[in-house]
């Protein structure tokens, strides 16, 4: 599993895969969403070094999905910024351990290349695969944000997770991290 910068063809593949409830899964389906913004961000800054950022997830060179990190602030922008991560694997790549590896690599990337103290993630209380991924990486659940997300005709609670810099080993041996790939 590798992370690499996004290219235009990746966005075409994501549009194809995620513009339906089946492809996006109920937890990520918010109706049809415009794809102009990521294409513009790709053209102007490679979808990097901004408030919303993306890398492609590949397995043996084949596109498997994407990881994103978004600017979040708990106070002033210049002193209290953290990243919120997100992931979407293409349907055929789910359930093979890649979600855990990709998010762990993204956390490693963010703690290595940016100075944030905290990486956070939110997910639906019923999204057991994502919750398990986060727990395996070392994220701790901080709480339940009630009626946070409008989706599928009703409000949904969200679970808030975080991982602090001191809780993550940047140099850990990756050889024992297996995936069914
Ligand atoms: C959620 C997602 C990232 C998980 O990645 P994945 O590669 O499919 O998950 P993994 O194969 O790494 O499995 C992670 C763990 O969840 C467990 N799991 C998977 N599906 C599960 C389910 N329905 N119930 C309980 N546990 C489940 C796996 O057994 C594994 O745990 P284990 O290693 O202890 O056995 C991926 O499925 C995905 O992209 N889904 C669509 C988008 C999405 O939901 N993104 C996150 C929303 S914020």
Automatic annotation (TrEMBL):
Domain N-acetyltransferase: residue ranges: 1-166
Annotated keywords: Acyltransferase, Transferase
EC number annotated for this UniProt entry: 2.3.-.-
CDD domains per UniProt: NAT_SF
Gene3D superfamilies associated with the record: 3.40.630.30
Record-level Gene Ontology MF annotations: acyltransferase activity
Record has Acyltransferase as a keyword: yes
PROSITE patterns documented for this protein: GNAT
Protein name: GNAT family N-acetyltransferase
Annotated organism of origin: Streptosporangium jomthongense
Lineage start: Bacteria, Bacillati, Actinomycetota, Actinomycetes, Streptosporangiales
